[in-house]
TrEMBL record:
This is Beta-ketoacyl-[acyl-carrier-protein] synthase III. Residues 246-335 form the Beta-ketoacyl-[acyl-carrier-protein] synthase III C-terminal domain. Catalyzes the condensation reaction of fatty acid synthesis by the addition to an acyl acceptor of two carbons from malonyl-ACP. Catalyzes the first condensation reaction which initiates fatty acid synthesis and may therefore play a role in governing the total rate of fatty acid production. Possesses both acetoacetyl-ACP synthase and acetyl transacylase activities. Its substrate specificity determines the biosynthesis of branched-chain and/or straight-chain of fatty acids. The active site is at C115, H262, N292. Homodimer. Keywords: Acyltransferase, Cytoplasm, Fatty acid biosynthesis, Fatty acid metabolism, Lipid biosynthesis, Lipid metabolism, Multifunctional enzyme, Transferase. CDD domains: KAS_III. Pathway: Lipid metabolism; fatty acid biosynthesis. GO terms for biological process: fatty acid biosynthetic process. One of its GO terms (molecular function) is 3-oxoacyl-[acyl-carrier-protein] synthase activity.
Length: 335
């Protein structure tokens, strides 16, 4: 039976740094207020004219991951692209990456699971490899949030949280038992879909309807988040899905060498860390620098942790995410 392993990692974030103090100049907020609630000190935003887009950033991250996997772009047999912010309504970002990288006519699959997108995409890639269908799969998580945020006081509860960036991983076939991706675990609860959502433009809320409404009262083209409700659900689901993954592999929290949680809110990560009695060296957080980059947050953090030597061969690495949908998931990896 085949297994899959992560053979290459890469990430890219725009050069434009936006600090909390920068935001305080355009909305009623301040550094202390943002850090206290989210742990975020700064984030990266695409700057007009810098040539970046969701797909372009994905390509930049992908090229690094492919080089580190010691293969060529022609060895990639499938692209899985996770994002909530594609360059256009359709087609998705995967085919744009295929075109920009001048790849063969390989399949490109888009995953729309928001903050859980990368974990879902890893799970899909893992299954394709385990069945023997593909040998090398490129998985990308990329987001361009900044262009779609309400950068006024009205939208500060959401807008201060999110940043732009991309991360990528190459998954490769292996026959080494007990190594690589041991298992993935996925869930959803659509009953709470509207607690973290963007309702339009969409097929339920097209542009003409939006224009006809009073833009000061109802702005469906900006994201909505019920912050406290999301937080309460996140801490429960994070713990559940991490435990599910550990139990499926006869492991305990004591076996974890590195937990890479989705960078939703530093307070959520710290709560989960306490729940599992993990040290600071066993949990990697970079939300302070990049904000919440949704589908890109786990691959960016995973790449940074690996680059810093905090993930070594033989380590047990756990990925976990929770977000809009609600969707959540975990991946248990023996590096």
């Amino acid at each position: 039976m085949y297994t899959s392993k992560i053979s290459g990692l890469g990430y890219y974030v725009p050069e434009n740094v936006v600090t909390n103090d920068d935001l305080s100049k355009i909305m009623d907020t301040n550094d202390e207020w943002i850090q206290e609630r989210t742990g975020i000190k700064q984030r990266r935003h695409i700057k007009k004219g810098d040539g970046n887009s969701t797909s372009v950033m994905g390509v930049k991250a992908a090229k690094i991951a492919i080089e580190r996997a010691d293969i060529s772009k022609d060895d990639i047999e499938l692209i899985i692209f996770a994002t909530l912010s594609p360059d256009m309504y359709f087609p998705g970002g995967g085919v744009r990456v295929q075109d920009m990288m001048d790849m063969k006519t390989i399949p490109a699959l888009d995953v729309r699971n928001q903050c859980s997108g990368f974990v879902y995409a890893i799970s899909v890639a893992d299954q394709f490899i385990k069945t023997g269908m593909y040998k090398n799969v490129l998985v990308i998580g990329s987001e361009n949030h900044s262009g779609g945020l309400d950068m006024t006081t009205r939208g500060r509860g959401v807008s201060v949280i999110f940043g732009d960036g991309a991360g990528a991983a190459v998954l490769t076939r292996s026959k080494e038992e007990g190594r690589g991706i041991l298992s993935t675990h996925l869930h959803s609860e659509g009953a709470h879909a509207k607690e973290l959502s963007l309702e339009g433009p969409s097929t339920e809320h097209w542009v003409p309807e939006i224009i006809a409404e009073d833009p000061q009262e109802n702005i469906p083209y900006y994201p909505y988040m019920n912050g406290q409700f999301v937080f309460k659900n996140a801490v429960v689901r994070f713990s559940e899905v991490i435990n599910e993954g550990l139990q499926a592999n006869n492991l305990t929290a004591a076996d974890i060498n590195m937990l890479i949680p989705h960078q939703a809110n530093l307070r959520i990560s710290q709560f989960v860390q306490r729940q599992f009695k993990l040290s600071d060296d066993q949990v990697y957080n970079n939300i302070q620098k990049y904000g919440n980059t949704t589908a890109a947050s786990i691959p960016i953090a995973l790449t940074e942790a690996w680059e810093e030597g905090k993930i070594k061969e033989g380590d047990l690495v756990v990925l976990a995410a929770f977000g809009s949908g609600f969707t959540w998931g975990s991946a248990i990896i023996k590096w």
